[in-house]
Predict the structure.
Amino acid sequence: MRRSLLSLLSLVILAVVVVALTSAVARRVCVHQLASSDDDLDWLRQEFSLNQSDLLRVRQLHEGYLPRCRDFCERIALKNRELESLLATNNTVTAAVEQKIREIAALRAECQTGMLRHFQEVSAVMPPDQGRRYFAEMQQLTLGQHQQFEHSMSPASAAHGHH
Amino acid sequence: MNTSSPDDSRLRGILRDARPAPELPPGFQNSVWRRIEHADTELTNTFAGLEALVGWLLRPRHAFVGATALVLVGITIGVVQGGNLAHDLARDRYVSAISPLTTR
């Protein structure tokens, strides 16, 4: 009696192990195959069902936007380093620190505006429905992150730590 | 050493009379034994069923079909999960390419 129970239990464990192992291997192979592309626009092509001519126009806009994006990246990183070094030398919030924070905020605002313009341009070359969906999703994935953070900081939010 | 007094035995008698034991129904003992035997048989049947199931599963043909089915289930789960993961990675790649503000 006990032997049959043990055999059945062993079979069940073996089955779970087989499924777990094969799914892990299949997942790994699948991710390796699908995510091995060097093209940044692969996701756009798949998600928004872009045809070759749509993708070509999107690619032109994307390549035109990348230098501006890199420029923003470098400027924001530079300002952040300057702010960090100011805070490292002096522990107080000086006028220079305030000024640097304002500069970073202005740069972020400029960057956000640039991003929104780019999203608008890209959505305009997509089929209308896909364009609207792209614009909404991009707002949520980029600017939405900051809005969520700010929302969590608002006094009305239950997640706020101060009472 | 008997320490019980005549009062104790009188008290025991009164208590016994106060709680009269009901008469057992006829065939009570037999029915109890029948139920015990029935329970034993049920347990034996369950284990016999399990043993038959294990034997059936371990037959080469059934074991092969079962193993193949498990591998197919595993591959299906892996492909679905891998597809979703690859999709998320591709999306993150695009977003980090176009957004200097994204910290991913």
Remarks:
- Residues 22 and 121 of chain A are 44 Å apart (CA to CA).
- Chain A has a mean pLDDT of 85.
- Chain A is about 80% helix and 0% strand.
- The two ends of chain A are 62 Å apart (CA to CA).
